[in-house]
Amino acid sequence: LGLALYAGSLCAVSGATFLYHDYCVIGAGPAGLQVAYFLQQASRDYIVFERGHAPGSFFALYPRHRKLISINKQYTGKSNSEFNLRHDWNSLLSHDRRLLFRHYSRDFFPNADTMVHYLEDFASLLKLQVQYNTAIIHVTLEKNEQAWNGHYFLLTDQDRKSYKCSSLLVAAGMWVPNVVNFPGSEYVEGYETVSINPEDFAGQTVLILGRGNSAFETAENILGVTNFIHMVSRSRVRLSWATHYVGDLRAINNGLLDTYQLKSLDGLLEGDLEDLAIVKDKKGKLHITLRFYLENRNISAGIDSITLPQDELDNFATRAPYDRVIRCLGWKFDFSIYNRSLRVMPGKGNIQKYPQIKPSYESRGTRGLFILGTASHSVDFRKSAGGFIHGFRYTTRAVHRLLENRHHGVPWPSTVYPITQLTNSIIKRVNEASGLYQMFSVLADIILLRENATAFEYLEEYPIGVLTELEMQTGRKAHSGLFVIIMEYGRNFSGADKDVFYYNRAVGEAQHAWQSNFLHPVIYYYKHLPTEREMKLRPPDWPLPRPDAIHHIVEDFLTDWTAPNAHILPLRRFLENCLSTDLRNFFAESCFLFAFTHQKLPPFCQQGYLRMQGLVGSQELRHHAVQAGLLQDYTHTDSLGDRPPDSHDGSQEQLMRDHVIPVRPLQHLVNAKDE
C-alpha cells in the first residue's frame, strides 16, 4: 500500500504542468499595473494575475461613499509635466500623455468609478499582460539551485491551475477588514456592508468604531440625519495637516469635529475597543458596557441581570443606548495564501497589518519576493506617501530598477555631468522632481563624485533605506564620495499634538535654513559610503546617518528654490567647501586672466574656456556684461588713434571681440560675476 501511494504521488507531481514566467505579479490594482508597465517597457517575461474581471477591483467597491481623497489638481501655473505630478495624486507613470488622470476627471477629489475607468484604460491602451478572473489561493516554494534566487515560486489558482516564476511581485493591496472581537461584536455592522443611504439612519443614534478616514467618511454621510454620532477609538484623532501624513484625517471628512467642538451633540471618545462589550435589550437597542462587567455572567440571560457602567457612574459617557454600531477599522494584508516556507510574517506593533519587508521592499523571509503598493507601506508608515498611488508609483519604479540590476545586469539609470553642472543639476531636481517631493525622507537623488571631483554621476530616486548597499543594488561605484539629496519637514514640526499654524512658523533667512519647518531640500555629503553600522546608529528621527557635512536649502512659500541669494548662492558655497573647488561661472576675460595668474584654473575655465567651448561673443553680449558690471568697458578708455595697433589694450579688446564666452544660458549671465 505504501509503494502504491508513493507511486501515485510521483505520478501526480510529474503530471502537473506549470506555466512559467520570469515574473509573476499578484494583483492588477494601481501597483500591479505600474510594475507591469515597467516590465513591459523592459521587454521582460511577466504575467499579472487579477481575481476580478477588470483591474482595480478594490476601487469598484471602496471607498463606499465613492469620493477619493487623492487630489487631482488641474492647474499649477506650470507646463512642466514632472512638476505637475507633484499635485496629481492619481496618475500612474507612463510615456502616454493620454493616461494622465486630469483627462478623466476635473474634480479635485474624483469619484472612485473614474479611477476604475482609468485603470481599465491604462491596462488596455498599454496592452499589459493581465490574466483576469484568476484568484491565486496558494503560493509555495520549490528549491532549485539554477533559479535566480535559489528557488522557484509555485502559484495555484482557484481552478487548480499551476504557475511557476522566478520572482514574485505581490501587489494585492490591503483588503481583509480589520475586526476586533469582543462580547457582543456580532451586533456590529462592517464598513464593507453597511448601508450608504442616509435615510436608513434617519432619527437613529449611531456609534462608530474607528477614527480613520473611513470612519469619518461614514459619519460625514449621515451627519445631517442622525440624532447624534459618537466615535470611539484607542488613539486621539490625527489631523493630516498636523502630522503631514496623507493617511491621517483629511479636511474633506472632518465635519464631525465641527459638530463635536461646537456642541452639536456628536462626540469623540478614546478607549481600547477590546475592553468593550455590547449588550442588546428587548427593544433592539445596543448598550455599551465594559468587558470586566460581564465576567462570570451569561450575556444571553438578558440586560436586566448585567451591571452597566452607568449603574455605578451615573454620568458615564456612553450611557445612552445606540441603534447601530458600525466598524470602520481599516484593512490588513491577506497572509492566508502563503505557505509557511515563504515566511511571510506580519510586522510588529502598529505595522502588524503589513508584511515584514526590507527597505528594498523585498520580503525579510524570502529572497525574490517583493511587496508593492499599499502593502509595502511599513517602510514609511505615518512618515511618507508610500501607501498611496502618488507615493508607490515611484517606489515601484525603484523596485523595478533594483530587479533590472540584479537579474539582467542593467545598472541603475544615471547621467554623467562635468562638475561645473553640479549646482544647476541639484537646483533643477529640487524644483521639479515629483518622486523626491512625494516620497520625502524615503527616496533620494544620489550624486556619485568621480576622481578629483572633475565630474559626477547622477542617480534619481534611490531608496535611502538601502544606501549602504548602493554599489551592489545599482551597479554604480561610490569611491570618491557622494551627495544625497532628499526632502524633509522640520524635525519637530509634525505630530498629532503640534500647532502647525503658530505665529512665525516659517523661516525666510538663508542663515536659519536648518530651522526650516515646511518641506525643503536637504543635502547630505559623505566622504565615503555609510556602513550598515552607521545606518543603525543614526540619530532618532534622522533618515540618514550623520554626514560629513549637511546643508538645508531654506523653505520657500512657493516651493520655488531658484532665488539667487537665498537658495542658489548658499548651496554653491556649501558644495565648494565640500569639494575644495570653485564652482562659479566666468566670462572669457576672467578665464584668460586666471590662466596667467593662477597655477590652477577653476573647473569652469578648465572645462570650457581652455577647450574653446562657449557662446560666440557679440556686441549685444558685451554690452550686457558691461552694463551688469561683469566686464570692464575698454571702448571708452582710449581712442584707437592714440594707441599703437599692436598695443596690449588693443589686443585685449580684440580678444574680447573675437573670443568665445563659455557655455551658459543667457539668463544665467547675471550670476556670473566674480564674487
From TrEMBL:
GO terms for molecular function: flavin adenine dinucleotide binding; monooxygenase activity. SUPFAM superfamilies: FAD/NAD(P)-binding domain. Pfam families: Pyr_redox_3. InterPro entries: Auxin_biosynth/cation_transpt, FAD/NAD-bd_sf. Its cofactor is FAD. Residues 635-657 are annotated as: Disordered. It comes from the Eukaryota. Keywords: Endoplasmic reticulum, FAD, Flavoprotein, Glycoprotein, Oxidoreductase, Signal. One of its GO terms (biological process) is ERAD pathway. GO terms for cellular component: endoplasmic reticulum lumen. Interacts with SEL1L. May interact with OS9 and DNAJC10. Interacts with TXNDC16. Probable flavoprotein which may function in endoplasmic reticulum associated degradation (ERAD). May bind non-native proteins in the endoplasmic reticulum and target them to the ubiquitination machinery for subsequent degradation. Belongs to the FOXRED2 family. This is FAD-dependent oxidoreductase domain-containing protein 2. It comes from Platysteira castanea.
